[in-house]
Design goal:
This is PIH1 domain-containing protein 1. By secondary structure, this protein is an alpha+beta fold. It has five helices and 16 strands.
Length: about 280
């Protein structure tokens, strides 16, 4: 979400308001609501994974569900996936998913357990279902997503249940949607962003000791004389910056869940450095 407090610079208040309206129109389609636009979906069953939480050894079930309303990840071949898994940072490949709240269920032994629903794109789910490598990959990504969101530690020796597609009852989930921009950019702009330079940047986590409280991004933008040319979008785990016209383009993910509404940014035209400070909700 973009907020007027997100763009503090050398501009006077009136200029800041003008800049805010301009950036808001570009990033949010000129529509600003108190809460993110969302819609309810009812996922379809898929796979049920059985594991245990650490160190309590309590039973945990992960229902990996499918829905056409969840966007697919970027297209990737089996060879590319193998290469990705062997790389230093496999997390660069992002799988869009909706992580549901924990719900208490009963297993086959009438013992209490906890279940989580994870919803991924329907076509991508079918691809994972037909290829063991993709299946193990999406299970791992789902488990890590739940661990990060709910501060869990789940045992990696999971079991795919053969005769059960889900445990408990599947509930509707709210997923975020984005409205179409009022003024849409031409396709040529995509080529322009691709030709733009990736700026130098530094990510700093504070405080140095203890749980992370904030994430700070310092982005060097040589040649950018005013924040009027910057378009900034701060997501829950993503930061996208574009400097017009086709000067710089930065699109990065980070391993934190941050508070978008409380994030602030300041551009120093003297040093030509943009600083974005983002409070951390969880890591």
């Amino acid at each position: 979400m973009t907020d007027s407090s997100l763009f503090n610079s050398e501009l006077e208040f009136q200029q800041q308001e003008e800049l805010y309206q301009q950036l808001l129109s570009q990033t949010m389609g000129g529509i600003q609501t108190e809460n993110p636009v969302s819609k309810s979906i009812r996922p379809e069953p898929g796979l049920c994974i059985k594991t245990v939480s650490e160190p309590s050894k309590e039973k945990v079930f992960v229902n990996i569900c499918q829905s056409s309303s969840v966007p697919p990840p970027p297209e990737i071949s089996r060879e590319e996936l193998v290469e990705l898994l062997q790389s230093e940072d496999p997390s660069e490949f992002r799988v869009p998913m909706s992580l549901g709240m924990p719900h208490t269920e009963m297993d086959n032994s009438s013992q209490g357990c906890t279940a989580y629903d994870v919803v991924i794109n329907q076509e991508f789910f079918q691809k994972c279902k037909n290829d063991p490598l993709f299946q193990q990959f999406v299970i791992l990504v789902s488990v890590e997503g739940l661990e990060n969101k709910y501060n869990l530690e789940l045992n990696r020796e999971w079991k795919v249940l053969k005769n059960r597609k889900f445990l408990g009852s599947l509930s509707t989930q709210d997923i975020r949607t984005k409205s179409k921009p009022v003024i849409q950019e031409l396709h040529s702009q995509e080529n322009a962003d691709a030709a733009a330079k990736r700026p130098e940047f530094t990510l700093l986590v504070g405080p140095p000791v203890g749980p992370p409280e904030y994430l700070s991004a310092e982005i060097k933008l040589p040649g950018v004389t005013s924040s009027r040319s910057l378009v900034l979008d701060v997501g829950e785990d993503r930061l996208v910056l574009t400097a017009r016209p086709s000067l710089y383009h930065l699109d990065i993910f980070h391993p934190f869940l941050i508070n978008q509404e409380s994030s602030v940014a300041q551009y120093n035209s003297s040093t030509q450095v943009l600083t974005v400070t983002m409070p951390v909700i969880s890591s």
